[in-house]
């Protein structure tokens, strides 16, 4: 008779331990260790077929999976060149950002290329999906719709339609009778994702899954969901703007941290192949407090205009308001400007923002932010033909940013005649050089 031992398992990632612990040793989650009694069994070794016998790695042939394009170049760019057969792709994002609209467009373009596509909506009826498809022009005879929330019924739909692409919207709303709990729970999400991933591998059938996010922006459900799938993409965007970004967070078949640009329109979603002019102001004359940074998103160099405004503060604690940049990074740059460059800003209200709603997370934008702050404090406008790239240290030195040649090439292509970078060894030298190129006349804001 098998001897029963008490095992404890993490409900988030599946990590097991013999003793109870308050914190998971794998995913570091608190309060997720539960007791799971399981009999200890001895597994007999199975006979391995000759076709599945292990071979030296040097004798294994390289068979590259043929990617097929989805018809959306920006989406293919994030995936690494197209959709790989048998891949499980997870697309997450906030409610209303446009996940379903994007995947419906992917489904329609794949159907127009002759592929049979099954779109399973667990949140909307087929009539609602049909209305959105008619509005966005995504109608095709090869696109099959189904509204199902049961995993077994979805597998039956796959056997009946025999598609070349499956889209499930969303994985948190599908439940399985083989697992306990409500739809969206850790056990249900794990069972549904594991089953769909297994079907994708067995049939070389690419499966696109839609994932919900929590209030802090992470994917809802167990962390095991991200480990099961092959590609994890995040669909981001601000509701106040029409611009949307797809970021590749995990990709077993291509580069990670790649970015695709889209724009939400009344007719659906449209790709933006060259977003160079989306993050620059339309002012014809230079204005004080602005500077252009050449940022790198994935493998793409994008010019981003940084704007700064400095106002004399009457409060004992001056305000520091930022939008699109890191607040702690701006606070550090303010301290470096005051200590190393002699620009006193401790008694001023400081406002820093980016144009277009893009977020600058990389340290390569430090020099542009510092020049925008210096320009706002001195009330001297920098020319439109000047850009800045570089990381600023606490000692006031300018360090080179990554992908320097790519940034310089993009700046030259866009018409920037001078780029301030790490060749200016310190911040004071860079500010002095920038003001030598400053516009002689300051553009004043007219009175209304």
The portion of residues assigned to helices is 25-40%
Order of strands across the widest beta sheet? 6-5-7-8-4-9-10-11-12
Q: Overall pLDDT, averaged?
A: 86
Form type: globular
CATH architecture classification name of the largest domain: 3-Layer(aba) Sandwich
How many structural domains does the protein architecture include?
3
Beta-strand percentage range: 15-25%
Summarize the structure.
This is DNA repair protein RadA. This protein is α/β, with parallel strands linked by helices and 448 residues long.
Q: How is this structure best described in words?
A:
By secondary structure, the chain is α/β, with parallel strands linked by helices. The chain has three domains: 4-38; 73-271, Rossmann fold (3-Layer(aba) Sandwich); 290-436, Ribosomal Protein S5, domain 2 (2-Layer Sandwich), CATH 3.30.230. It is built from ten helices and 20 strands. β9 and β10 (243-251) form a beta hairpin. The protein is globular and about 75 Å long.
Topology, pairings included?
Layout: E1 4-10, E2 16-17, E3 33-39, H1 73-79, E4 88-93, H2 99-112, E5 117-121, H3 126-136, E6 143-146, H4 151-161, E7 165-169, H5 186-203, E8 207-211, H6 224-228, E9 231-237, E10 243-251, E11 259-265, E12 268-271, E13 290-297, E14 300-312, E15 320-323, H7 327-340, E16 348-354, H8 366-378, E17 386-388, E18 391-392, E19 398-399, H9 404-413, E20 418-420, H10 427-436
Parallel strand pairs: 4-8, 4-9, 5-6, 5-7, 7-8, 13-17, 15-16, 17-20
Antiparallel strand pairs: 1-2, 1-3, 9-10, 10-11, 11-12, 13-14, 14-16, 18-19
Protein name: DNA repair protein RadA
Keywords: ATP-binding, DNA damage, DNA repair, DNA-binding, Hydrolase, Metal-binding, Nucleotide-binding, Stress response, Zinc, Zinc-finger
GO biological process, one term: recombinational repair
């Amino acid at each position: 008779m098998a001897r029963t031992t008490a095992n404890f398992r993490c409900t988030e990632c599946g990590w097991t331990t013999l003793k109870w612990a308050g914190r998971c040793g794998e995913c570091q989650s608190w309060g997720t260790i539960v007791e799971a009694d399981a009999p200890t069994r001895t597994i007999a070794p199975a006979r391995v077929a000759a076709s599945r016998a292990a071979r030296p790695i040097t004798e294994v042939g390289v068979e590259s999976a043929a990617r097929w394009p989805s018809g959306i170049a920006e989406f293919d760019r994030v995936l690494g060149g197209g959709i790989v057969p048998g891949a499980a792709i997870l697309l997450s994002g906030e409610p209303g950002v446009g996940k379903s609209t994007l995947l419906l467009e992917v489904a329609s373009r794949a159907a127009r290329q002759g592929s049979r596509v099954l779109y399973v909506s667990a949140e909307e009826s087929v009539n609602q999906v049909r209305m959105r498809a008619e509005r966005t022009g995504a109608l095709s005879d090869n696109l099959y719709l189904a509204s199902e929330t049961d995993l077994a019924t979805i597998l039956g739909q796959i056997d009946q339609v025999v598609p070349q692409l499956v889209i499930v919207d969303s994985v948190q709303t599908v439940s399985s009778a083989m697992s306990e709990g409500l739809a969206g729970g850790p056990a249900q999400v794990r069972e549904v994702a594991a089953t769909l991933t297994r079907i994708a591998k067995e049939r070389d059938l690419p499966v696109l899954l839609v994932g919900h996010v929590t209030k802090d922006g992470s994917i809802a459900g167990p962390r095991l969901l991200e480990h099961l799938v092959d590609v994890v993409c995040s669909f981001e965007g601000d509701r106040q703007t029409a611009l949307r970004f797809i970021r590749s967070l995990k990709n077993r078949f291509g580069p990670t941290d790649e970015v695709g640009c889209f724009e939400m329109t009344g007719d659906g979603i449209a790709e933006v192949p060259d977003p160079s002019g989306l993050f620059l102001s339309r002012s014809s004359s230079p204005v004080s407090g602005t500077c252009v940074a050449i940022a790198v998103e994935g493998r793409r160099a994008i010019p981003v205009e940084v704007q700064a405004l400095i106002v004399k503060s009457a409060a004992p604690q001056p305000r520091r308001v930022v939008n699109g940049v890191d607040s702690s990074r701006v606070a550090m740059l303010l301290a470096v400007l005051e200590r190393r460059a002699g620009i006193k800003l401790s008694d001023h209200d400081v406002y820093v923002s980016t144009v277009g709603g893009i977020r600058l997370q990389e340290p390569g934008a430090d020099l542009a932010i510092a020049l925008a702050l210096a320009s706002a404090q001195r009330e001297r406008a920098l020319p439109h033909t000047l850009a800045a790239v570089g990381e600023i240290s606490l000692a006031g030195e300018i360090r080179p940013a990554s992908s320097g040649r790519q940034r310089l090439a993009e700046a030259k292509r866009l018409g920037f005649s001078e780029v301030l970078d790490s060749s200016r060894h310190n911040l004071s030298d860079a500010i002095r050089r920038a003001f030598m190129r400053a516009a002689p006349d300051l553009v004043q804001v007219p009175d209304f």
